[in-house]
Amino acid sequence: MKFGTEIAQMAKKRAVATGEQKAWFIRHNETITVRFLHEPPTWMAFKQAWDQGQRTSWPVPEGAPFDPDLQVSMKAYANILMLDDGQGNCPDKVFALLLPKTLKDQLTAHYEHEGTITNCDVDIWKVGEGLETTYMCKLLPPADRDVSKYKPHDLEQLLQEQYDRVWGEVESEPVTDSSPVVRQRIVIDEPTDDLDVSDPEIKRRPELKLDMDRPPLEELLGLGIGPLREIATRFGIETKGRKRAEIIAELAIDPDEESAG
User: Fold this and answer.
1) Collapsed DSSP state (helix, strand, coil) of residue 25
2) What is the rounded average pLDDT of the residues 226-249?
3) Topology at the third CATH level for domain 4-158
4) How many CB atoms lie within 10 A of CB 6?
5) Residue 20 burial (CB count, 10 A)
6) pLDDT (tens digit per residue) in 11-23
7) How far lies 126's CA from each of 3, 26, 227, in Å?
8) What is d(CA 131, CA 135) in angstroms, rounded to the nearest whole number?
9) For residues 110 and 238, is the Cβ–Cβ distance under 8 A?
10) Residue 74 to residues 102, 199, 250, Cα–Cα distance (Å)
């Protein structure tokens, strides 16, 4: 499943990352110091959906429809070496740093002016809340730092893992009408204001119209909640807060056939 593209398609390969925590979200009133392990053209740009009711976010697969009530904004991931986490710790560890569009644009401007941002450490911080949130960065004087021993994260794999955390199947009994598998939404550790709602890229999905018959019940029973929500949304069926079995039941009722009968 494809989520984003490496900016300018410059990255040729990705390394498999190790360790438990892979992503890092910039928090309020903390200044982190990082060393970027690759340049902006090879960062991973993607769309991120946010469900305010569930306080849940996840990466949106390319070309996938989604609930029109969701907010979507452009984000990017970049591999960084964390030198100071803003808590007085020096993890000396690689993370995928989540960059809102405004911060990505600032860093990209520095890159375009200087020709690189991997030859120096960078201070990054966030101030304000909600619509007043502002991201800032400062490039420190160039300094040699051997980063050859550090493995960057596979950013596409990370996006897949984050998607699966929200929409992945929960182990349960086989799927039947009487014992449906319900996929749970899991809150990803990201503050609401990191939506960067002033970003003009934020938009709602336009209404989709699908010129096709509804899938048969047998096919619906074989689908997870994510694909079911997407199909239901295309047919104008409300899915927010509804369980898998409820969505299947409504999809299985064809209003055209009902009216004809």
Assistant:
1) coil
2) 80
3) Replication Fork Single-Stranded DNA Binding Protein (3.90.198)
4) 18
5) 4
6) 333 333 333 588 9
7) 26, 7, 36
8) 12
9) no
10) 10, 8, 33
71 Cβ contact partners less than 8 Å away, ≥ 6 residues apart: 49, 50, 52, 195, 197, 202, 204
In this structure, what token pair is assigned to residue 47? 């769309």
> Going by DSSP bridges, is the β-strand pair 31-36/71-84 parallel, antiparallel, or unpaired?
antiparallel
For the chain, domain boundaries:
4-158, 208-261
Residue ranges of the alpha helices (H) in 21-133?
Answer: 101-114
Work out the angle at residue 204's Cα, subtended by the Cα atoms of residues 200 and 209, and round it to the nearest 5 degrees. 140
pLDDT tens, 111-145?
Answer: 999 999 999 999 999 988 777 889 999 999 999 99
According to DSSP, the residues that pair with 135 across neighbouring strands are: 126
